[in-house]
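Sequence in, structure out.
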Amino acid sequence: MLFMLLAFFRIIGAFPYRWKWETKGIEDMLVKFVLRQSVVAVVWSWVVVMFLVTLSLSCVINAPNFNRGITSTITIYILNFVSYITAAILFTYLATNSSKLANIIRRLDQAGAGLRRPLVQRNDAMQLVCGAGMVASLAYATYASFRGTLAAPLTKSGVLYHLPATTCDIAIETSTLALGLSLYFVLKIVSTEIREAVEVLVPQPHPYHLTSNWVNGFSTKTSLKWKILPHSHHTAALQAVEEQEGSGGGVVGEVVRCRVSRRLLALDDIVVDVVQYAGPPAAMILLASTVNATVMLYLTITNLRSHRLDTYYVAYITTKILSVIQITFVPDCLSSQREKCLRLVRGMLASHDTCTHTETGLRDVERILSTGAKFLVCRLFTLDRHIILSVASSVVTYLVIALQFGLSETPQQTEVNCTMPENT
């Protein structure tokens, strides 16, 4: 799933890299992941990006005047400026910072994370539902926009604004969807590795263990390439040393706990890289979606004065709302997995008579989990579920202000769709 999204990124010019798995070693038992920048992909990337940026700037420069009231005219200009300037910056950012995304993928592979593991599960329902809803609503909005544009006479406005705007809207929403899903699945890989690292500390009879994949008392996850010894030897050695010393603080056990702490710190560094790469795009997506939802809701309400519901606006509003929800839930899998692991470690500390070495190791793991990197968007705010309430509050506030001005004005003509020709 992750590499399907990266392939789509390469098509839209946001990831000019190619990858493959090479087999090396005796009897080709060693598999190496290779990620290289491709010259052809780089050229394609800049051609696509310059094309999309040109279309975005064309939408801003050639935005038509629909001869509406003052409030409606201002809101439409704000909508066009914020949407398409943000789109131009977003396309350029993704292309120029593709090396950061490539570095994240390389670090995941170097850490032994399962890049090719199955990622789609039941707990991904929120992301999948939002993605499906965005695709469906975008398809209808695109159909309505193209239908109105093609039905109208060919004019300068149609060539320089309506067709570029419709094309840019498709590129913006698909890029947003692919970016959100890519970040989500990268963080899901990290969260899965965090869970498996913590599970190494938990013996089978422990009531707080998270899964049931155990052999001789310890986890048998094949993706844990960083373990010191093979599973059977590791467990036997650990149990033998701890039985001799009469406590849970044996030499091997202490080494394992140190390795777990280092493992968690390495995964936390990957999260920091993800946040640095994804912070600016997330801020731009949230800003553009909030402005679009506010203006489109205002235009929908003002259209109701003429007893007409524009389904194009409804579809576009749905797309933007789902976009906000999808981006907001990107770090949700990581935060929830950290909370589960924290409960697991604290349960071990509370329910087991541990020696000094064991307690110190568990305290280190607890501290790393509790102080892990947060998804700080440009160091302005933390991306979590509370953002949905903040966005909803902003939309309602500015919608009420716009309606107070707009509904007091006398409409000069029948309201029309701001992304479709005037006579539709």
